[in-house]
Amino acid sequence: MKNIFKIFAVSLYLLSACKEEIPTGLNLTPERSVFDTTYITNTIPAPQPANVYIEDFTGVKCPNCPRAQATAKNIANANPNRVVVMAIHPGPNILNFFVSPFKTPGDDHDSKYDFRSKEGGDIFNILGSSSSLPIGAINRIKFSSENVLIDDTKWNNYTNSILASNSKVNIDTFGTKGVYFVEANKIRINTKVTFTTNIIDSQYVSIAIIENGLIDFQKSGGKVIEDYEHEHVLRRMITPSTGSQLKAQIIAGRVFEKTFDYEIAIEEKWNTKNLKVIIFVHNGPGGTEPYKVLQVKEYKINE
User: What are the pLDDT digits (tens) for 136-177?
Assistant: First the structure.
């Protein structure tokens, strides 16, 4: 009888040990897709030029971060419509010394905004994290002898190496407006993803809302700038932080059409005139190059 009890207990333990474990720190909010279909087209389009996605991890109390932001801006300006930048203030409770708002009692500075986001912290951890800022990723590629997160002095050279290539996937929108306000505070994103070659790795699409023209405090060197203009600030991920999986065999001609809706909450006091949407397609968590970005595009939100 004792042996039977032991076998039963061990069985229960093994069953519990086989439960799927959710990685800590990931945003598991259900995706906001309202339409999802896939098909194969016989007319495979020409591949789009590969664009570059710069994820600039930054903070309002980081004295060197304005330098990195200027680097990203210069790269984008030198390559119109080919380079997309997202400024990510990770948080909460990640590098608070650099990213927490100016709200210290007795301090003359009091931040109007808190740019930190849970999703920003998720992405920071997914890509390897860092003990210092500024730091960033170029298409989430782990270049030779580098980590995925690299110093801003290296961003330009790695960007140029990507811009000379073509993408394996095309990003477009569908419908008459593509990305637009379906209501005053409700954004609709009609995403069309077309693969131009076969791919073994699992594929995901990620969508983010960013905001420009945010005037607030920023430390720069040994001083604090009161009217610093913060640009490309991550406000919200429409998809989960790890992306929305494209669930079908990835072959040349495979098309995915997905519609996402996001309703801006009352407490999210964003200037809708300054919002943009970033769409990027990337590898999944497995494979030799996890989360590598294959293509990215940025869209204005139509009325």
Answer: 999 999 999 999 999 999 999 999 999 999 999 999 999 999
Rounded Cα gap, residues 247 and 250, in angstroms: 9
Q: Quick check: is 78 in a domain?
A: yes
Per the listing, tokens 């380079």 go with 83
CATH number for position 247: 2.60.40.10
Q: How far apart are CA 216 and CA 201, in angstroms?
A: 42
Count of domains forming the chain: 1
* Residue-number span of the structural domain to which 249 is assigned: 31-296
Residue 207, class by beta-carbon neighbours within 10 Å (0-12 exposed, 13-18 middle, 19+ buried)?
buried
Does residue 277 contact residue 209 with C-beta atoms inside 8 Å?
yes
Distance, CA of 6 to CA of 270 (rounded, Å): 59
Distance (Å, whole) CA 28 – CA 233: 21
19 occurs within a structural domain: no
Is 7 among the domain residues? no
Q: CA torsion, points 33, 35, 40, 43, in degrees to nearest 10?
A: -100
Q: Is the pTM of this model over 0.85?
A: yes
